[in-house]
Amino acid sequence: MLIQNRKEKIIIIDFGSQVTKLIARRIRDLGVFSEIITIKDLYKVKDFSEIKGIILSGGPSTVTKKNFLKIPKKILLKKIPILGICYGLQLIAKLFGGTIKSLKKQREFGRASLVKRQNSVLIKNFFKGKKSLVWMSHQDAVTKLPKNFKIIASTKESKLTIIENTKNKIYGIQFHPEVTHTQNGKEIFKNFLFSICNIKKRWHVFNEKKRLIEEIKTIVKKDKVICALSGGVDSSVVALLVHKAIKTRLVCIMVDTGLMRKNEFKHSYNLFKKKYKLNVKLINASKLYFKNLKNISNPEKKRKIIGKLFIKIFEKESKKHKNIKYLAQGTLYPDIIESRSSSGSQSSKIKSHHNVGGLPKRMNLKLIEPLKEFFKDEVRILGKSLGLTNSIRNKHPFPGPGLAIRIIGPITPKKIKILQEADNIFIKELIQNNLYNNIWQAYAGLLPIKTVGVMGDSRTYEYTCLLRAVISEDGMTADYFSFPKDFLDKISNKIVNGVPGINRVVYDITSKPPSTIELE
User: Fold this and answer.
1) pTM of the model
2) Per the CB 3.0–4.6 Å rule, which of 10, 98, 191, 473 could disulfide with 93?
3) Residue numbers of the domain that contains 389
């Protein structure tokens, strides 16, 4: 759990949905602290006085089977307001005597038109008229209303889409208000928090600095910490937090993997050494990384190799310093979601991250991950409170494995050099055209495809460069950025003319889902 002894909070019981963390994000955006727990954690809660509301997430389980994930019915009768989402709705209906059936031919996935049947405090300002577009992702539906519940809204395929029991303050919705695809989804949470739970706005990430610093002090005591400093937003915020907590007992290690953007490593090193006065040590390990990545094409193998080298180097360096017991990392919420469930739920693994998925089973350093329950934009706010320069604070997300996962296929120094040059041109043009801050993440990738081209009177046979730029609120879902045609024309021309080894440029117009933001 992120924080102990919080007053007035909303708990989210995770049943394994890939977007459970988005619920927590929406609640925090509204100024209320939220905490995700498992069913197992729920049984350990003895004092419910600080819990002002409970949200039951969606998940892959089904209540139509004999064995299914559930919570004690007594929890539902504690008069604590409850909101069930998707699977959460079905669970509520099941526990109160309703009927749930599998919709084999009438499943709802994607957008659906929701029709209001009657008024409810839960849907205040949600509908613009009698209908609203919502995002569905289910193949089970409630077909018989449980006792003492009433219907609030319906879709064509799911008549009991929103139900409520005002006496016990229990509400259920079949759609997902936490995703941006649902129109006015935030209004559902706003009504649940402030009109039903009567909770106050008392949480903001800007105020978390002091707590995190004190927490680090308590954990570390008089020991030392090694910080994996890459120069990205996450590791930079972690370094400043730990530095403010323990000062000279922090040793920052910058490992030159050879997989970073052009000139970025040198710039970051000088900034932290001179501006922030951190104890930074530089390790050039590029040859070691290239050696270990030779002929490796599988993306998971790349991540595992990079992760193991990462830890190996830090363990080796830690032995040169006395009393180093901790390794600080910039692991975030989305990292944990896509690697494994942070709460031990049924969330299916998407991919491993080098911060959390490549760690060997036996490690000589204990981990400090102060940002593991924060989203990227929250980390930026935290960075501002720590005085982190805008050039780093507003930097686009960059993967831990670096350019290794932006090159499809084997990694070579030559390919890295080609990609660095192409990426540098792309990012510079975004900045110069005032587009950089309108985009969540942008980068160039190198595809394992060589195509024929013509330059002058000569035939070329060179690589294809893929450009990717997405807009997003949280990195969990994303859509591609719509560039003006003349901008893409200019970028393509500059890359082809300025980067030997590339003779073709393509632009990725795929959203997340179904694809991920990164290529691998």
Assistant:
1) 0.72
2) 98
3) 224-393
